[in-house]
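Request:
Um, any thoughts?
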Amino acid sequence: MSHHPRLLALALLCLLLGAWELTVRQAGISTLVLPAPSVVARTLWSSLATGYLWPHIGVTLAEMLLGLVLGGAAGLLIGVALAESPLLDRVLKPYVILSQVLPKLALAPLFVLWFGFGMLPTIIMTALICFFPLMENTFTSLRQVDPQRLQLFSLLGASRRQTLLRLKLPAGLPGILAGLRVALVLALVGAVVGEFIGASRGLGAVIIAAQGMMDTPLMFAALAAIAAIGLLCYQATLMLEHRLLRPYTDPP
């Protein structure tokens, strides 16, 4: 039965692509305005077969993963620090929120000015985007631990470090991993948007170049590659989540 929803999702995708193909062909819509899925598929295949897209995919993946690691690690550590220290929470929380309400796209030209062209400005922007969901989810998850279990650990004489590592982090793991899933999706968006501003490599740069050449099929092919990367990475986080949470969900 677990395959049933997947088959339905695949059938819906085929239906939507078929309707798109038929509409474009019947209405005689120009490829410049809206290419048919078959045209996009041919463009994607040829750009992969010739090796044109692979370096760009590699750059976007590298920016996304480096940004996710940097932003995620900072978010996790600061989330733990704020949850463990009410004083730090009161002092730093306004600055953390301020860092998030500033639009990253507006900061992108400044990052290019400060760090030059290339991957570094995009990685920094991606890290800033990834930071908040993981920080907020970590903070909330650690603060929502069952008070009775906290009391039990206190009665058993557990130190703050032991309570954090043995109780709070394992109990807050589902919430932390949910934050990681959100951060991953935002990391891909951040990497591609960052490439729109002054990058010469990456899938975002391919979209801008295709727009300049009025090559709409190539633009759609790059978007299809981005969608595939997003789905595969999201699926990978679900598998990681399943493995990490298995000890807490399997019956004894």
